[in-house]
Amino acid sequence: MDFSFFISKHISKPESNTFTATIHKIAVASIALGLAIMIVSILILGGFKRNVTEKIYSFGGHLQVTKFTVSSSFEESPVSLNSVLYQHPDSFPHVTHVQSFSYKAGLLRTDEDVQGVILKGVGEDFDEKGFEKNLVKGDFLTHKRPNGSTDILISVKLANLLQLDVGDDVIMYFVQVPQRFRKLTIKGIYNTGLEDFDDKIILGDIALTQRLNNWDSTQVGGFEVFIDDLNALDQSEDYIYRNIENDLYVESSADLNLQTFEWLNLLAKNVNIFLGLLIFVACFNMITILFIMIMERTQMIGMLKALGATNRQIRKIFIYNGMQLILKGLLIGNLIGIGFGILQDQFQLISLDPENYYMDFVPIEWNNWLILALNLMTFLLVTATLLIPTAVITKVRPIKAIRFD
Question: Structure pTM?
């Protein structure tokens, strides 16, 4: 057995209620607490990013294809369903689904209030399964040809503002010349927690918007494109743009919701800074604790040097000792951090205000590789810092160390 490891093993279990035992507990606790907080941070950050992006993509796809225009009018320029993208989506790499949509601005009017909204017309090709997690009450839309169904979905926010519920009727006046209006029936109520959607978007039958715009059944406002790999988003956007009709324009939902994605990026940067500070504190604590352990074992160091032990062998004793403390801390930290993640994921113990956080509970996103990398990085960085305090050992003189008190 290695000499340094043998000595380290015998001094790694100090008697309880001693100063050395207290120092060991502090070292393990500092590593465990730091790692647990880091794990919880990345689990929550991943949950936030997943939930918010899923809500955005479920409402508008990963990419949107519309008619290229320089007009800022509320009126859309129609796109043909005969587009190669809509007719042959399989010919485009990473594209899994393409659905049509159109928008129509107007005013919702009740006996008490008036609210400006945008009616988003969707068809039978709409990804209901992806959107159903946002539906909190009622049912999804039915579609009727050729005039279009008058059923709509409104947000919880609009329903509360206008005091409406499933089954209620509401009049919508559309912004166009000549002005038109329709009596619409609330079929369901949704909630994304995203202000850009909940404040103004209602869902309806695309056939209704086509009739209001005097379009035929092959004309829509644009296409929403879903892809299977977000890492290939920019590549897919560029490929689609180069292979569709020249008068069509492609834009990602990330660009259309730039403020929300910038908020997520800022949140990720803050978490990275926070993780860096936690690792720094853990390293600093281990340096301090190892200095104390070396001071406490000064006589032992002098005795080992007097017996012929080299500086390298003695330094390895304390490095092995420190590594054992780090591994204990990592084990406890994983139990705490992952345990919290499991409890929060299963029981949603911590709730949030959806007005400010886009969701009503703290979300958890599991990333086993990231947790493993965090453990490895913490172990390597904190272990590397052990070289700093053990350098003091080379300055210890055996005669003075043996007489040290």
Answer: 0.84
